[in-house]
Amino acid sequence: MTLTSRVEFTAREGRREEFIQAAKALAAATQDEPGTLRYDWYQDADPDSFVVIEEYVDSEAAFAHNAHCDELLKRAFELGELTAMQLHGDISPELQTFADNMPGTKTFPPLA
């Protein structure tokens, strides 16, 4: 089963355009990631609110993405505030630990 995440960000005051550039750079960086199936950014009606939908073959691929895009992710967190994260799919113990340490994060494993 794949792992899908939905992550919401709010651009910090006066940083909207920079945040958009960071989001576009992240999307471009995922093009060559073998375990990344989807990485799409969306904008809310509020011009400072953004959502990224990510899909990976598994939890390991999500961690590989985080390692590959470490500097870009740091930049995104500098320019925006994570307001919510949902993780859907097979949640590995390592991913659950990661989620437990990220404010506003919920995990949704498949029904048994």
From TrEMBL:
GO MF, one example: catalytic activity
Ranges of residues in domain ABM: 3-95
One family name in Pfam for this protein: ABM
Protein name: ABM domain-containing protein
Source organism of the structure: Kribbella pittospori
